[in-house]
Amino acid sequence: MSVKRTQSEKDQTYFCSFTCLDWIPLFEITNLYEEIYKWFNILVKDNHQILGFVIMPNHLHLLIHISQTAKSINVLLANGKRFLAYEIVKRLEGQGNHPLLKKLSEAVTQEEQKRKKKHRLFQPSSDIKPCYTEKFVIQKLDYIHSNPVKGKWNLADDFTKYPHSSAMFYELNVQHPNITITHYKDAGTQSRIVPGAGDDT
């Protein structure tokens, strides 16, 4: 469920998700995966840590530890979505996909039009949850890693073989070729994750 609450804690691990407008597989249509990795690497360069992720055709889930000096997680995600939106539109224009561009343009609200926004690429809000316990982190990692092989998805015959996921790192001890993943137990300078604790609230 999307939330609009601002999360302001620093030196903190968060589970985050955001979704393409109307669940349209924009990441797949535009083959945007390398641009998402580029954004991940910008985050790492800025001293944040990618603890886990999965990039699906129309949404992504991210487990991230943000640094003590960071902007809020809401700002980091908003900046990332803006970066990705620009590239999606550029690629759709290059493909000549005018029907889809029209649909994305028609989704812009009047208020957004006043701010010169031309296309809406994502659902309005992101899902952001702070992670305080190890149990909650493990639960979210399991959810992230199983995403490509559950429900309607059949993106791999084995979840560890799905290339756009951190599953290979946690299950096979293989670092991802496109982004350096930090184990959740090594997150932050003063990690707030409590080992063996119960569910987060």
What would your notes on this structure say?
With 201 residues, this protein is an alpha+beta fold. The protein has one domain: Alpha-Beta Plaits, CATH 3.30.70. Helices cover 36% and strands 14% of the residues. It contains seven helices and four strands, in the order E-H-H-E-E-H-H-H-E-H-H. The chain has helices at 26-29, 33-45, 73-95, 98-106, 110-114, 134-146, 167-172, and strands at 12-19, 49-55, 59-66, 127-131. Strands 2-3-1-4 form a four-stranded antiparallel sheet, sandwiched between helices. A hairpin with a 3-residue loop joins strand 2 and strand 3. The two termini are 15 Å apart. The model is unreliable at 1-6 (pLDDT under 50).
How would you summarize the topology of this molecule?
Blueprint: E1 12-19, H1 26-29, H2 33-45, E2 49-55, E3 59-66, H3 73-95, H4 98-106, H5 110-114, E4 127-131, H6 134-146, H7 167-172
Antiparallel strand pairs: 1-3, 1-4, 2-3
Helix pairs in contact: 2-3
Shape: globular
Looking at the overall shape, the CATH architecture is 2-Layer Sandwich
What is the strand tally?
A: 4
Domain module count: 1
How many DSSP H or I helices? Answer: 7
Brief sketch in words of this structure:
The chain is built from seven helices and four strands. It is α+β, with helices and mostly antiparallel strands and 201 residues long.
Name some characteristics of this structure.
4 strands, Alpha-Beta Plaits, 201 residues, four-stranded antiparallel β-sheet, 36% helix, alpha+beta
